[in-house]
Design a protein that fits this description.
267 residues; mainly beta
């Protein structure tokens, strides 16, 4: 967003800057305003070292102001690019918004100029009652869409039944929160009331207001293990409100007797 001005509260920088290659500032503060005069973002730090091209900040605490939300970013240390105002954060990185969504990781790049946040480190994200862990993540700075790169694990309760649902995949996992959709890629395993479902791809649809599961669509080499039986199909759709599973694409069922665990046949 185009800003009117940047208010920088550290007068010592302006005094004889050519004589010093760096300046140390306690109680660092930097803010940016929108054209209507409201805050765009602000950054605070316990201490900062100011260089020609960047600022190193200790114990950073920043706020990013949106129309209907405020995002808080904290870290033990950060490097702020003075030209484009992008920030690299290190150690105990924590991002939260007013709704309670939270991201925790060891390092993160906040690219304000590209509306992007990303990390290659392990990340833990929580939103409502959904918890995600993965290695690597990228998201828009408003935290409305996110890609979790690999080794993804997700857990959440079904809002209707309260029964826990877990999902794992090699990745990536793509989430569009505003559309109520999450897409799991490669080696997907979903465990819910209908059993354990394996597939190449799985798309979860949820109500954006109530967060209740609408349906879970598993596609490609679908295998379902439940109560001593195996089911194979090309697609399986679990409908949350009805607690119903629908199989498509040459479904085949195999049952086993309990004593000998031997096949009785298939359909």
């Amino acid at each position: 967003m185009k800003s009117i001005f940047i208010a920088i509260i550290f007068i010592s920088i302006a005094v004889n800057t050519q004589a010093y290659s760096q300046q140390k500032i306690n109680d660092f503060y930097l803010s940016n305003f929108k054209e209507d005069g409201t805050h765009d973002w602000e950054v605070r730090g316990v201490e900062a070292m100011v260089y020609d091209e960047y600022v190193d900040i200790e114990k950073m605490n920043a706020h990013y102001y949106l129309e209907d939300d405020t995002i808080q970013i904290t870290s033990d240390s950060a490097r702020l690019n003075k030209e484009n105002m992008d920030v690299h954060l290190e150690n105990n990185v924590n991002i939260t918004n007013k709704e309670g969504a939270r991201i925790i990781t060891d390092s993160l790049d906040w690219q304000n100029s590209k509306n992007l946040i990303h990390t290659q480190d392990w990340v833990k994200a929580t939103r409502d009652e959904m918890q995600i862990t993965a290695q690597g993540m990228s998201a828009d700075t408003e935290m409305q869409s996110a890609d979790f790169k690999k080794d993804v694990e997700v857990s959440f309760p079904d809002q209707e039944t309260k029964i826990p649902i877990t999902a794992n995949c090699t990745g990536p996992l793509e989430i569009e929160y505003s559309e109520g959709k999450a897409i799991f890629h490669d080696d997907v395993v979903v465990t819910h009331v209908q059993g354990k479902v394996y597939s190449d791809k799985c798309t979860l649809f949820f109500n954006t207001e109530t967060k209740a599961i609408i349906k879970i669509v598993s596609e490609g080499n679908v295998k379902i293990f439940r109560d001593g039986s195996e089911t194979y199909a090309e697609q399986a759709t679990y409908f949350g409100p009805e607690d119903k599973l629908v199989l498509e694409g040459r479904p085949r069922l195999i049952y086993y007797i309990e004593e000998g665990n031997s096949s009785l046949g298939g359909l």
